Amino acid sequence: MECGALAAMAASSWQVAALLAVALCVLPALPAARAARAFFIFGDSLVDNGNNNYLLTSARADSWPYGIDTPDHRATGRFSNGKNVVDLISEQIGSVPVLPYLSPELDGENLLVGANFASAGIGILNDTGIQFANIIRISKQLTYFEQYKHRLAKLYGPERAARVVGGALTLITLGGNDFVNNYYLVPYSARSREFSLPDYIKYILSEYKQVLRRIHGLGARRILVTGVGPIGCVPAELAMHSLDGSCDPELQRASEAYNPQMEAMLNELNAEVGAGNGNGAVFVAVNTRRSHDDFIADPKAYGFVTATEACCGQGRFNGIGICTMVSSLCANRDEYVFWDAFHPTERANRLIAQNYLSGSTDYISPMNLSTIIHLDRHLHD
Ligand SMILES: *[C@@H]1O[C@H](CO)[C@@H](O)[C@H](O)[C@H]1NC(C)=O
Ligand SMILES: *[C@@H]1O[C@H](CO)[C@@H](O)[C@H](O)[C@H]1NC(C)=O
Fold first, then answer.
1. Which of its termini does the chain have fewer beta carbons within 10 Å around, N or C?
2. Which domains does the chain have, with CATH numbers?
3. Which family does this protein fall into (predicted)?
């Protein structure tokens, strides 16, 4: 309104000035129009963008050949040859990659993009990943989120900060390590002696529910929660348990039992918290296992040469130990589902992210990301 009046006034006296005034009026609006939705990420190595680079831990991906397919071929801390799934979701919501919370660059305007709190090796339980020593467990990630909110409010005021957080997209990936790096880490692990598998699943989901309640309590209103992938089919497990490349049935049974119960737990939470922004479910279940199962069942249909062999590693299925500069490395990463013994290649991540965006409810439920983007289009500035 003010801008229009100013432009009209100028037009009556001097046309060039009018054009200038219009330009000046349009300019301040531009950054707001372009500002993408903030994105918050919690979880483990599947979504860690480099927090562990700043920690004393063996769970890290900060040396070659990690990152070999990035523009400058440098390792970033992502467990991939290039982008991971959250980078690709940032692309989908029209944003730039989210910085790790521990990065010194995460300050000022960069805070508006969001923050990535994920740390490789962690799980729902505090005793998951103890072998990796110094990693950011989930309760600490939430404490960092509180810290982030204070910093944001200090810089931009409490109202804007609340709008950024309430209008944000949040994603959390947890649970895989509670099986692979805890219950099934060694035969007769402490947790497997304590719990039968069904009781263990109930236990970790009851803990997970509290974590998710806390994230909601901190203001997040659209939260993607990923299930556990095909943990019995990753090259690391094939190397240990499989003769012919068929998946480990026990681990597969674990994720098969876990995923529907996780979805049921999210439904309970949705009933508890109500519709977040007045437009649909707060918690959205992502079935990454389903995407992966597609690749494993028919790799060629998706342009992959193998879904059993890792690109970077050593030994059987290239799945033994970690990916380092002396590992055997495949020539064409795009032909592999798995980059290392546990993590997908950028190309696999891209196909998985596509299912987030436009998959049916078999992949993401009760709605996909394009529906979410449409519903939430007025929430963020
Ligand atoms: C994990 O540790 C944190 C911090 O010490 C604690 O608050 C939390 O209750 C613990 N969680 C479980 C499941 O024991
Ligand atoms: C998912 O996204 C696509 C593309 O936006 C849409 O046409 C479709 O209806 C959605 N599917 C479901 C099940 O929501």
1. N
2. 1-26 (no CATH), 37-380 (3.40.50.1110)
3. Belongs to the 'GDSL' lipolytic enzyme family.
